[in-house]
Write a structure and sequence with these properties.
single chain, mainly alpha, about 140 residues
């Protein structure tokens, strides 16, 4: 029995050794997988941080560009307003200096050929020509 008990003990020790080795192998594989996952996560985080930094820089550039364009747009609106005022003034000057019969001439059959029409004592300030108004307001292009 002694020999048999010794053989059994060796078999049990071999089984314990084998199980212990398997467990250690599983732990080592798990550690290697966890380490690789950590490296992958770190690489992904680094890539995302780089992309975030690039996106933030692009946003700053776009915000600066937007401010520049807003300033240019305000300048162009002011310029258009000044041009509109000049067009109104020019139109008014033209209306004041042209004889009124050129604006509202009667049909030829009713006008007396030798009659001279008197000018009103003060010429009314005419509204700008509709084409000028539409052009200035951006609703009509010059043809």
């Amino acid at each position: 029995m002694n020999a048999r008990a010794g053989d059994l003990r060796v078999i049990e020790e071999d089984a314990v050794e084998e199980v212990g080795q398997r467990i250690l192998g599983l732990i080592q594989r798990t550690a290697a997988i966890a380490e690789q996952n950590t490296r992958n996560a770190r690489d992904a985080a680094d890539g995302l941080a780089f992309q975030l930094k690039a996106a933030e820089e692009r946003i700053r550039d776009l915000e600066t560009r937007a401010r520049d364009l807003e300033g240019a747009l305000r300048f162009q609106y002011a310029r258009a307003d000044r041009a509109e005022e000049w067009l109104k003034r020019i139109s008014s000057e033209i209306a004041q200096h042209l004889p009124s019969n050129q604006h509202t001439a009667a049909p030829p059959e009713t006008a007396a050929p030798s009659a001279v029409r008197p000018h009103p004592p003060t010429a009314p300030v005419a509204a700008p020509h509709p084409d000028i108004e539409l052009y200035v307001k951006g609703r009509r292009k010059v043809s």
